[in-house]
């Protein structure tokens, strides 16, 4: 697939609209095309000239180091697609990465769906989760097969903690003008959950969707609102003025030291 795109994909003129262009994948199976040997690729990886993304896939070492963590994750997804023998439909955090939907946390595994109801499996570095084919909508995005946006954020709401589910939901409730994607209504989200999830998962989805709000200004703000809600505080928006924002972050930092919260947000997003 070669240079497989950017976080938001190329425009028709072949440029990238204010996004980081992801480094070209170097596949060991194409070493003759690159005029090198497998030993030379391995040696370059040891010296840092190349970075080994996964078995058989490398990228330029300096280019990899310059990427943000969520951009590195997107490269890992592309590398998994290049080396997967079977058709792979990416899901959950991986689908969110391809759609440009922000998620919370780092070091997520590459995730995909399996259409075999055997409890899911991990194979070739990809964590797979069962999905009933009859209720699955698949899209092609940046050359990859992914669950549609509704299914992607619903899966995150169903299978991740509440505080991590809000940022993706807040994001899709408003139009993504950067990528030309329309807003999704709460009604459409709830309708998309019908008949797919267990009763417990639907309750988690309903709780998260009810709390989600398109007024959130960023993934970090969404995460903060969710933390405040879980902690029993009134969840507020902080895009009114910078003084309010500074007061909140000072409060969050001091409380975080006591409660063991991380010192900084880890919102994995390209927005």
Beta fraction: 5-15%
Shape: globular
Q: Determine the fraction of residues in helical runs and give it as a percent range.
A: 40-55%
Gap between N and C termini, in Å?
A: 25 Å
Question: How would you characterize the overall build of this protein?
Answer:
- The chain has helices at about 40-45, 60-65, 70-85, 90-100, 150-160, 160-170, 185-195, 200-210, 220-230, 240-260; strands spanning about 25, 50-55, 55-60, 90, 105, 110-115, 120-125, 125-130, 140, 145, 265-270.
- The chain has about 270 residues and is α+β, with helices and mostly antiparallel strands.
- It has one domain.
- The chain has a six-stranded mixed β-sheet with strand order 7-8-6-4-10-9.
- A hairpin with a 2-residue loop joins strand 7 (about 120-125) and strand 8.
- The protein is globular and about 60 Å long.
- The two termini are about 25 Å apart.
């Amino acid at each position: 697939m070669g240079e497989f795109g950017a976080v938001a994909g190329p425009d028709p003129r072949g440029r990238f609209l204010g996004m980081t262009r992801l480094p070209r994948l170097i596949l060991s199976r194409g070493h003759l095309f690159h005029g090198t040997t497998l030993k030379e690729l391995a040696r370059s990886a040891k010296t840092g000239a190349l970075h080994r993304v996964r078995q058989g896939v490398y990228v330029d070492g300096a280019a990899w180091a310059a990427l943000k963590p969520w951009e590195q994750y997107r490269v890992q997804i592309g590398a998994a697609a290049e080396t997967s023998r079977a058709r792979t439909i990416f899901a959950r955090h991986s689908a969110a990465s391809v759609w440009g939907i922000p998620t919370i946390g780092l070091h997520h595994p590459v995730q995909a769906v399996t259409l075999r109801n055997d409890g899911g499996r991990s194979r070739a570095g990809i964590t797979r989760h069962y999905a009933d084919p009859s209720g699955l909508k698949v899209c092609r995005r940046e050359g990859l097969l992914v669950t549609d946006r509704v299914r992607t954020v619903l899966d995150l709401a169903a299978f991740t903690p509440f505080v991590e589910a809000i940022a993706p939901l807040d994001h899709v409730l408003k139009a993504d003008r950067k990528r030309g994607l329309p807003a999704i209504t709460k009604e459409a989200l709830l309708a998309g959950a019908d008949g797919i999830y267990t009763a417990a998962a639907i309750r988690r989805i309903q709780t998260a969707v009810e709390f989600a709000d398109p007024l959130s200004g960023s993934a970090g703000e969404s995460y903060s609102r969710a933390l405040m809600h879980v902690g029993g505080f009134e969840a507020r928006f902080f895009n009114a003025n910078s003084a309010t924002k500074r007061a909140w972050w000072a409060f969050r930092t001091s409380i975080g030291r006591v409660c063991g919260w991380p010192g900084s947000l880890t919102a994995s997003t390209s927005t």
